[in-house]
């Protein structure tokens, strides 16, 4: 639905990807979680300043996903 109305790199997608990654973490599907955390991070880095807390949260979650592989 969002893909039809927003560009694929729109900041709104970062929260969608982050939430999908969290679901995959809950399912112990860490490879999928890593993929979606990385997508969220790519988008956030394009739109936000490096010190933005949202980037830090995604990096932290990404590190957790890697540690659970």
Please tell me about this protein's structure.
With 69 residues, the protein is mainly alpha-helical. It has one domain (8-67). The protein is 77% helix and 0% strand. It contains four helices and no strands. The longest helix has 18 residues, at 30-47. The relative contact order is 0.18. The mean pLDDT is 92. It holds the Pfam family TPR_10. Keywords: Repeat, TPR repeat.
SSE layout and pairing:
Blueprint: H1 2-5, H2 11-26, H3 30-47, H4 53-67
Helix pairs in contact: 2-3, 3-4
Q: What's a quick, concise take on this entry?
A:
With 69 residues, this protein is mainly alpha-helical. The protein has helices at residues 2-5, 11-26, 30-47, 53-67.
Descriptors for this entry?
flat; 69 residues; single chain; 77% helix
Q: Rg, please?
A: 12 Å
Proportion of residues in extended strands: under 5%
Count of the domains: 1
Termini Cα gap: 31 Å
Shape: flat
Give helix and strand order, one letter per element, not per position: HHHH
What's the helical proportion of residues?
over 70%
Kindly name the structural category: mainly alpha
Describe the main β-sheet briefly. Answer: none
The tally of strands reads: 0
- Taking pLDDT < 50 over at least 5 consecutive residues as the criterion, the unreliable ranges are none
Total count of helical runs of at least 4 residues: 4
Q: Please tell me the overall pLDDT.
A: 92
InterPro entries: TPR-like_helical_dom_sf, TPR_rpt
Pfam families: TPR_10
Protein name: Tetratricopeptide repeat protein
Keywords: Repeat, TPR repeat
């Amino acid at each position: 639905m969002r893909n039809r109305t927003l560009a694929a790199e729109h900041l709104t997608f970062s929260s969608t990807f982050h939430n999908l990654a969290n679901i995959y973490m809950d399912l112990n599907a860490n490879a999928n979680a890593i993929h979606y955390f990385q997508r969220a991070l790519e988008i956030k880095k394009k739109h936000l300043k490096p010190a933005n807390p949202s980037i830090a949260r995604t990096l932290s979650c990404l590190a957790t996903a890697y540690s659970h592989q």
